[in-house]
Amino acid sequence: MARLSRANLGDPAHQRPIGRGVGTMNPIGPLVVGRAQLEPGWRWSVDLRPVVGTASCMVHHLQVLLSGRLGVRMDDGEEAEFGPLDTFEIPPGHDTWVVGDEPVDLLDISGNVADFGLPTTTSRVVATLLMTDIVASTANLARVGDLAWRQTLANHDRLVRAELRRAQGREINTTGDGFLAEFASAAAALDCALRIASVVEDLGVQVRLGVHTGEIERVEADVRGMAVHTAARVMSIAGPSEVLTTLMTRLIAESGSFVFESRGAQGLKGLPSPIEVFAVRRAGQTGE
After folding, report:
1. pLDDT tens-digit series, residues 79-116
2. How far is CA 193 from CA 54, 124, 167, in A?
């Protein structure tokens, strides 16, 4: 049975230095609520990057700014500035800094900041990632209504999970109307992607799918790293019921099982340079 619990954000036992600032990390049950008090001039890329060891902050924040002003820049170039009493979400992959001469005092209520400001101790491995997304989900919702669409989504999730189990893929999380999954085998990921594209069409929906092989960091049940962003960007340019993949996946996939049609080098948002992308179909399957 759950019991009442309490922690105090003023308790020095829960404080740690975070460069030109102090962080307080309060464990509450399975979650950790944080408070950061940052001096003027504080910047994550200056004060914490040398300690943490990642190119940008990879913590997913949900924050309330009590005082001062905070600037944020995402890895893809998006920027924002927040002021007192703003409540905001910052996805992984960002830099933050104190704006102006007033200190910043903020709360992090996301519950996952236990390791904020600490050196990374994650496990890095090479894996193949599959990311999916339903095409025109908003239009489908408007067409069939809330109740029917909820049932369609439930059926979609059931079919996708069945194919992930069949291919021995590990579901990492759901991403809106889609999935992110990890595979030890590039061929298994491509086979699973093609099966998903086919089976969900019986529901009257189509999905776009992206497959990419690269190095990831495992953080508890989640994964992160440039490979995750690459899989998402590749998926985003796929057409309805289309599987797109990258050169690395093509090179290590089982020879003879698939046909790869180059779509050329694509400049994808947030990636440092264009990458070659391939449409995938099964060997022996007639193309368009």
Report:
1. 999 999 999 999 989 999 999 999 999 999 988 888 88
2. 31, 24, 10
pLDDT, average across residues 157-181: 90
C-alpha 94 chain-centroid distance: 13
Distance (Å, whole) CA 224 – CA 122: 10
Alpha carbon 282 to chain centroid, angstroms: 28
Mean pLDDT of 158-180: 90
Give CA angle at 67 (96, 59), nearest 5°: 30
CA distance 125 to 134: 28
Helix (H) or strand (E) holding 210: strand 207-219
**Distance (Å, whole) CA 113 – CA 265:** 38
54: its two tokens: 């990642």
**Cβ 25 vs Cβ 34: under 8 Å:** yes
Of the candidates 261, 224, 221, the one whose C-alpha atom is nearest the C-alpha of residue 244 is 261
Look up the pTM and report it: 0.58
Query: Could you tell me if 84 and 135 are in contact, meaning their C-beta atoms sit under 8 angstroms apart?
Result: no
Residue type, 139: A
- Positive or negative: CA dihedral 35, 40, 44, 49: negative
SS3 label, residue 13: helix
The Cα 215–Cα 101 span in angstroms is 40
